[in-house]
Each structure stands twice: as structure tokens, then as C-alpha cells.
Amino acid sequence: MGIQDCRIVELPKIHEPRGNLTFIEGERHVPFDIKRVYYLYDVPGGAERGGHAHRELQQLIIAMSGSFDVVLDDGTSRRRVHLNRSYQGLYVCSMIWRELDNFSSGSVCMVLASNLYDEADYYRDYEDFIAALPSRY
Ligand code: TYD
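Above: the input record for the complex with thymidine-5'-diphosphate. Below: its predicted structure, written as C-alpha cells.
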């Protein structure tokens, strides 16, 4: 698994004069059963979130409102993804170091997750994360 496995998922969008509607179905629009939803809001200007990787957890990250950047790092490559559409999600597989920054004022970041919160699933130290990656030799 690497950042090439992380991708933008185009979500269904029902466009009407009354407004737009987007829906997400587990195992259909995201490649996992959705076990948890959380969201970041009231993020102060200049703040950074994330700064960790997950052993097992898979996520879909959506800019519900406003915009922010997600930096993905698999220990070999880094990629910055700008999210600003509520009908697009960024799928992040396991064993990816991620950092979120560049939050616009009033932005809301919603995350769909493949499992319940479990602190034991986190790598919060970058060197520990790198050491846990399979050897490339
Ligand atoms: P963390 O995952 O570090 O946030 P972020 O990646 O957005 O910077 O979580 C911040 C705090 O919230 C930490 O103390 C753990 C707690 N938390 C929960 O209790 N449940 C959850 O589902 C999440 C995502 C975090």
C-alpha cells in the first residue's frame, strides 16, 4: 500500500434547483464498511491536524465546506491534495502518514472511517511509522 492507492472518489451528486444532494454508501462508494464518522470544524487559521498514520484504519476525507490540504506520505513519496468539493472524497488507505493544513475559514472536514476509534491503531511518531514499513529490499 502506498500513496498511489490513495485516490479521489467522485461521489454521486443529485443536482436540483432546490440545491444539491450527495450520498455515500459503505462498500459501494468507499471500499469499506463505515464504522465511524467524525468531523473537524472551528479550525483556527494556520492550524495543522493529523500528523499520524494508522496501522489498519482506512478513511474517506471530505471537505464538507470550505477547503484544506491533505499531505500524504508513504515513506517513499509525498503528495499534497487540495480538497474543496463536497462531492469528492479522498480515500486514504492504511499505513499512510497524513497531515492536514491550509484550512480555509469556516471549513468543515468530515472523515468516514473503517473502524471505531482505537489509539493503539495510531503511529504518532514519524520515525516509528518509517521503521514499521516493510523493507523495500
Ligand atoms: P486526532 O486523531 O489526533 O486528531 P487529528 O488527526 O484530527 O489531528 O484526535 C484528536 C483527539 O481526539 C485525540 O485525543 C483522540 C480523540 N479522538 C477520539 O476520541 N475519537 C475519535 O474518533 C477521533 C478521531 C479522535
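Notes for the reader.
Residues 36, 38, 40, 49-50, 117 surround thymidine-5'-diphosphate (CB under 6 Å).
The first helix runs from residue 126 to 132.
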